[in-house]
């Protein structure tokens, strides 16, 4: 990273000020556990320093959706951070924001099993019938979209004070499984997850303070229906990356590429080392 682009974070905004002046953009990549007080501090410092555009730590589920926030309550802090920026604007701050919604991460999720497949063991866990469409984005597409916003005047303007939606593909778990079986020339053993049961159990655990229960709730927002709606099918919003010419291939092409180059960067980063 060039020295002209500062990195790092202190929760004390007074200690951030020396790093932020002269920067047009702040890109926050904080994890959820640090997203509250530390990102509030970062927003305060950015406003004070005259930053023009702030990217909050989104890059996942659609936190503009009340149904998503009801399903995964800890994500409410993300929506509240946008409200904080809007309040700063109402008070006279010219700082704008762009919130990037990527749905589920495709390449990372494929290799760590988050999408329900274990490529090594040739097994799959499908939620219900595995037929709920969800949008997933490769991390490279997220990065290319951010770069496009910062280097293209039309993209910069189109993303001003807005949630934007990205996607490499919209598919179902069943379609992902079929593409993976084709690419590996293998049949996977399938088990079924009863979505409503797991959602109820995980919600109760989360309410009791077990934050590990948040993970299956995030998966549920991708793979289950809530009041009949597929909450992570982002096509209804129009995919920002596609509007600006940033696309990947078909799911079959992407799966084949990931498997072929699995021990190369960037994919090898996501593969757990063999004990």
TrEMBL record:
InterPro entries: NAD(P)-bd_dom_sf, NmrA-like, NmrA/Isoflavone_reductase-like
Signal peptide feature range: none
Keywords assigned: NADP, Oxidoreductase
Domain named NmrA-like: residues: 20-198
Single GO MF annotation: oxidoreductase activity
Gene3D superfamilies on file: NAD(P)-binding Rossmann-like Domain, UDP-galactose 4-epimerase, domain 1
Name of protein: NmrA-like domain-containing protein
Native species: Friedmanniomyces endolithicus
């Amino acid at each position: 990273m060039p020295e002209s682009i500062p990195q790092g974070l202190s929760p004390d905004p007074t200690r951030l000020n020396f790093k932020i002046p002269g920067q047009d953009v702040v890109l926050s990549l904080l994890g959820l556990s640090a997203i509250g007080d530390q990102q509030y501090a970062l927003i305060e410092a950015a406003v004070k320093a005259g930053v023009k555009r702030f990217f909050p730590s989104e890059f996942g589920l659609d936190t503009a959706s009340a149904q998503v926030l009801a399903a995964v309550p800890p994500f409410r802090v993300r929506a509240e951070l946008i409200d904080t920026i809007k309040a700063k604007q109402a008070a006279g701050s010219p700082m704008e924001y762009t919130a990037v919604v990527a749905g589920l991460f495709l390449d990372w999720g494929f290799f760590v099993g988050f999408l329900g497949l274990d490529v090594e063991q040739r097994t799959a866990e499908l939620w219900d019938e595995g037929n709920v469409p969800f949008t997933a984005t490769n991390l490279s597409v997220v990065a290319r979209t951010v770069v496009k916003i910062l280097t293209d005047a039309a993209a910069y303007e189109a993303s001003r004070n807005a949630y934007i939606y990205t996607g490499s593909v919209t598919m179902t778990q069943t379609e992902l499984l079929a593409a993976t079986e084709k690419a590996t020339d293998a049949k996977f053993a399938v088990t079924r997850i009863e979505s409503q049961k797991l959602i109820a159990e995980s919600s109760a655990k989360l309410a009791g303070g077990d934050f590990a229960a948040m993970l299956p709730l995030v998966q549920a927002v991708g793979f289950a229906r809530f009041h009949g709606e597929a909450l992570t099918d982002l096509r209804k919003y129009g995919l920002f990356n596609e509007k600006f010419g940033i696309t990947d291939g078909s799911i079959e092409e992407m799966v084949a590429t990931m498997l072929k180059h699995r021990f190369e960067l960037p994919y090898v980063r996501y593969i757990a080392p063999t004990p």
